[in-house]
Amino acid sequence: MKKLFLGLMIISAQLMFAQKTVGLKADDGMKKEFPAKLTKDKINLFNDNFYKFIAAVQVSDRKTIDALLADKVKEIVTDDVLKKVKEGVDPEKKFEVLKVGYYVSMDGVSHPNIKYKYAGDPAAKEVVSAVFDNDGKIVGVMPGKKDQ
User: Fold this and answer.
1) pLDDT tens readout for residues 60-119
2) Higher pLDDT residue, 105 or 51?
3) What are the percentages of helix, strand and coil residues in the chain, rounded to 5?
């Protein structure tokens, strides 16, 4: 009888102190809405700024580079970063627009993104990606790898 009473007390104590569990579903609070397309005028503005930027990087014209960069990245773009961009882009080859879209940054803001391939490269092995802000200033350039 004592064993039965002790067993019931242990079970009732566990039920009294048990925590209630609720099944929760995690919902991504960040909505990813993309405008349908970029206009031709915007794409032309972005292309012009990209070509000016690449030309300025090749001759190390820091004044022109700073004029083409967005304000939020001017402080973090160092000479070492520009050197890597210079080494990653072949100035002798012409660029063609491969893909136009949007890039969502870590803070949830979508920026226009244009991916360029070298003219005459049917497989698009080397792709240079350029991210812009809405004013046409450059937020980032990621050159393709030459050793692929």
Assistant:
1) 888 999 999 998 888 888 888 888 888 888 878 888 888 888 888 888 888 899 998 888
2) 51
3) 40, 20, 40
3-state secondary structure of 103: strand
Measured distance CA(77)–CA(85) in Å, rounded: 11
Half-sphere exposure of 131 (CA within 13 A, CB side): 14
* Residue from 69, 54, 80 nearest 143 by CA: 54
Angle at 108 between CA 103 and CA 113, to 5 degrees: 15
Question: Around 51, how many Cα atoms within 13 Å sit in the side-chain half-sphere?
Answer: 12
State the residue for tokens 């004013």: 135
The sign of the torsion formed by the CA atoms of 129, 133, 137, 140 equals negative
Question: What's the one-letter identity of residue 44?
Answer: N
Exposed, middle or buried, 12 (CB in 10 Å: 0-12/13-18/19+)? exposed
